[in-house]
Amino acid sequence: MKKITVALAGNPNSGKTTIFNQLTGARQHVGNYPGVTVEKKEGVCKYDGYEMIFVDLPGTYSLTAYSIEELVTRNFIIDEQPDVVVDIIDASGIERNLYLATQLIEMNVPLVLVFNMSDVAEQKGLLFDIEQLSRLLEAPIIPTIGNKGKGKRELLDAIVKTVQQGRWQRTHKVTYGEEIEHELAKIDEIITDKEHELAEKYGSRWTAVKLLEQDDDITVKFRSRDVLDTVTASIEHLKSIFGDAPEVIMADRRYGFISGACQETIRTTVELRHSYSDMIDAVVTNRLLGLPIFLILMYLVFLLTFKIGAYPMGWLEVFFEWAGRAVAGLWPVGSESWLSSLLVDGVIGGVGGVIVFLPNILLLFLSIAMLEDSGYMARAAFIMDRIMHKIGLHGKSFIPMLIGFGCSVPAIMATRILENRRSRLTTIMVIPLMSCGAKLTIYALVIPAFFPENWHGPMMWLIYFIGIVLAIILIKVLRLTFFKGETIPFVMELPPYRMPTLKSVSIHMWHRGWMYLRKAGTIILAISILLWFASSYPKPGRESLAGLSAEQARQARLEHSVIGRLGQIIEPVIKPLGFDWKIGTALIGATAAKEVFVSQLAIVYAVGSTDEGASTLRQQLRASYTPLTGFCIMLFCLIYAPCVATVVMTKQETNSWGWALFQFFGLTVLAYIITLIVYQVGSLIAG
Amino acid sequence: MEQKKVKPLSTIQSGETVKLAGIEAGRGLNNRLAAMGLVSNVEITVVNNGHPGPFVISAKGSRMMLGRGMADKIMVSSCDYEKDNGRPGRKSK
Asked: Which residues of A fall within a CB distance of 8 Å from B65?
């Protein structure tokens, strides 16, 4: 079986990911491009004697060096030399989408064009002369309907055919008009002469085009003075002729090429004045209704995550309780085996305490995937822009923050949609204030432990709301201090509304769920065992336990352990917050991953308790602390030090340990101050 | 380019269609806008001039949302030339 690489390129919202999912199913591998943290998705499809490795490139509008995604896409095509590049085009917005295709044509790659959403284009009254257009663009064109899987076979056939054809020189090229072509020829000649290697690698014409466009990434590769001088002279010359920078004119000419090709091959039969998208938009982006609708939707997401999630969560709880008892039952009653304790309290207790929250995580990501796939997410940014603008960020920043409600790690990755570094840094800094799925596990433990049933919803809402308000204040402060500067105006496409497909939503949900489980199976398991050790050893001498009741002995053993000592060391510091050393111990553990707080507390309370009918953790908590302390636990956990994974991601994305540590310590100090005030004032009021 | 009066896009009312005359922004932004279809002489329909706040326009068959600052930088001219036949008149609010 022959192995080939097929790269999928395309505009954002062109349905690229849907096609990718159709081709590869759930057999996908998600990684990163080397050096940068742009997500790299790969999947395999076996067809007609070929093993096709599909690489889902980031969605881009063009191939400039303007954003990381565009650079990644471009470098992948140049460095990896994929056997075929498939450009997914939204057929209903053909001209804009072909802009990327013109650049791929310029790179002279073996190209297959996919006219996706051809049904939508048809509804819009667009008729294509596919054959003729294909001849003009010198690439096969395959109409598809991504969400219905239509055209998949034809696409695979076209890929095979293109591979068999091999690389060849195109006859039509995008031409830029006499003056520019003249300068391009000059540059082409001098780079072929002076910088042979680069010309060979990138293709001399493409390089000439990029140099004339003043592409930073390509320009810095050239050392030869002669080349750079020629380019500068050409740019000056063209500027004097056109009164505009060459790249503006060249973009114009590319569209000229596109409309030339389209004029002969596309017919418009009807023009729809009001599509259903407009009608939905009239309501959801309405000045008065927009924000309430958004808030209601967010509340529904939380209700779904909680109310519905409570059932499978209950089943899992029962299962782990049963598993714990079953394993403990392997040892004779009353024996104090360390292995039994490790398995029951360390492994089952620790990991089980985390896995029970899997239904919540899945439902949350299901909601997020539906919001994203339906196209509402972009509207949410639109609605939020009014508010975000006031605090010095634009609506787009809201998207990573919204994803932050799932997990800070992908949220920090999602800040890449922000072009401005200051906006991006500010957003990254406050993302941990968005209550992530892991913090949810803490709230889900604490709220039912201290508050009556009918308070659960409002309480949850309140803690999320506090996070948002704090984030807003913090952004404002950061924008006035560390990240001073004008807010960058922004552009963003509003994709038409689409029905999310079950397949793509479930793949998305499955991936996130799997990521969470893997974290539970690896990092959290390791930490649980480590913490079990730290909370079991060193054991106090037998004589020091003499004469104590079973309860006091348990207490003594715990206080003697590493973790107990650590907790005690910090107890004087956290006492003003209403926390004792047990909570302190759990807080230390939770810096590794927030959900560890729950498993850690479970271990701290379960260690040494071999008594039958041990009360559940919630009952233990209720017996030990006041509701005020419960609230302060949530408040502190909401704000303080982000988890290790977030710290690592912040370091990677900001490319500096400085910002990562600033975030880590800054938030911890903030958490301390706020919790201190709340606890002290709360205690006063409570008398 | 025509000798028509050029004004910022932000001053255009919802429902009106205009022609892009130029963008007063840096190279990076210019490139980005070009890639999204905003080049000279492109027809832009203002779908929603939702002041204050972002702008929704339609150009080359796709919807785009602009920040107000952006809409100030995009210069447009009116396009009341003959080519209008076949294009149903936009309802202006």
From this structure: 378, 381-382, 385, 395, 491-494
- Is-contact A91 A78, C-beta < 8 A? no
Indicate the residue of A92, A94, A490 with minimum beta-carbon distance to B67.
Answer: A490
**% of chain A surpassing 90 pLDDT:** 23
Nearest to A96 among B60, B65, B87 (CB): B60
Residues 6+ apart with CB under 8 A from A284: A290, A293, A294, A376, A379, A383
- Which contacts qualify for A397-402: CB closer than 8 Å, 24 or more apart? A397/A423, A397/A426, A397/A427, A400/A427, A400/A431, A401/A427, A401/A430, A401/A431, A401/A434, A401/A471, A402/A368, A402/A371, A402/A377, A402/A434
Residue A154 has pLDDT above 90, yes or no: yes
Query: Is residue B70 assigned to a domain?
Result: yes
A41 has pLDDT over 90: no
CATH number at residue B64: 2.30.30.90
Residue B1: band (very low, low, confident or very high) from pLDDT cuts 50, 70, 90: very low
Does the residue B2 lie in any domain? no
| Chain mean position to CA A596 | 22
Mean per-residue pLDDT, A628-642: 92
Chain B residues with CB-CB distance to A62 below 8 A: 31-32, 34-35
Does the distance separating the beta carbons of A490 and B32 come in below 8 Å? Answer: no
Chain A residues with CB inside 8 Å of B61's CB? 92-96, 124
Domain membership of residue B36 (yes or no) is: yes
Within 8 A of A395 by CB-CB distance, chain B residues are 54, 65, 67
Q: Which residue has the higher pLDDT, A169 or A370?
A: A370
CB contact under 8 A, B56 and A94: no
Q: Can you tell me which residue has the tokens 């060096």?
A: A65
Q: For residue range B26-65, list pLDDT tens digits in order.
A: 777 788 888 888 888 888 998 888 665 568 888 887 888 8
Q: Quick one: pLDDT band at residue A553, thresholds 50, 70, 90? A: low
Q: Which residues of B touch A (CB under 8 A)?
A: 22, 27-28, 30-40, 42, 47-48, 50, 52-54, 56, 60-73, 86-88, 90
CA distance B5 to chain A (A): 19
Which DSSP string corresponds to B27-80?
HHHHHHHHHTT--TT-EEEEEEE-SSS-EEEEETTEEEEE-HHHHHHEEEEE--
A275 at interface of B, judged by CB pairs closer than 8 A: no
User: How many folded domains does chain B comprise?
Assistant: 1
Tell me, what amino acid is at B41? N
Closest CA of chain B from A365, distance in Å: 26
In a domain, B87, yes or no: no
Kindly state the helix (H) or strand (E) to which residue A31 belongs, with its residue range: strand A28-32
Supply the ipTM of this predicted assembly. Answer: 0.80
Please tell me the pTM assigned to this model. 0.72
- Res A504: pLDDT: 80
- Tokens 């926390």 belong to A579
Cα nearest neighbour of A491 on chain B:
B66
Q: Which residues 83-102 of A are in CB contact (within 8 Å) with B? A: 90, 92-96, 99-100
Q: Which domain covers residue B40, as residue numbers?
A: 7-81
SS3 content of chain A, % helix, strand, coil (to 5): 70, 10, 25
Which pLDDT score, from 0 to 100, does residue A499 have?
A: 83
- According to the model, what pLDDT value does residue A287 have? 76
Chain A residue numbers touching B67 (CB-CB < 8 A) = 385, 389, 394-395, 487-491
**Closest-CA distance of chain A to residue B47, Å:** 9
For residue A601, give every residue at least 6 positions away whose Cβ sits within 8 Å of its Cβ, in sequence order, or none: A445, A582, A583, A586, A617, A621
**A481 contact partners, CB below 8 Å, separation of at least 6:** none
Chain A from 200 to 219: CB within 8 A of any B CB: 213-214
Distance from C-alpha of A227 to C-alpha of A222, rounded to nearest angstrom? 8
